[in-house]
Amino acid sequence: MDFEEFLSEGVPLGPMTSLRVGGPARYFADVSTVDELRAGVHWARTKGMPLFVLGGGSNVVIADEGFAGLVLRNSIKGVKFDAGGDVATIDAGAGEDWDSLVEMTVEHGWAGFECLSGIPGRVGATPVQNVGAYGQETSETLLSVEAFDLNTGETVQMDRAECEFGYRTSRFKTRDKNRFVITSVRYGLRINGDPAIKYAELERHLKEKNIASPSLSQTRNAVIEIRRNKSMVIDVSDPDSQSAGSFFVNPVLSSEQFSEARERASHQGVIVSAMPGYPQRDGNIKVPAAWLIERAGIPRGFVLGNAGTSSRHALAIINRGSANARDLIELMELIRNRVREVFGVTLVPEPVFVGFEKQ
Question: Model's pTM, two decimal places?
Answer without folding.
Answer: 0.90
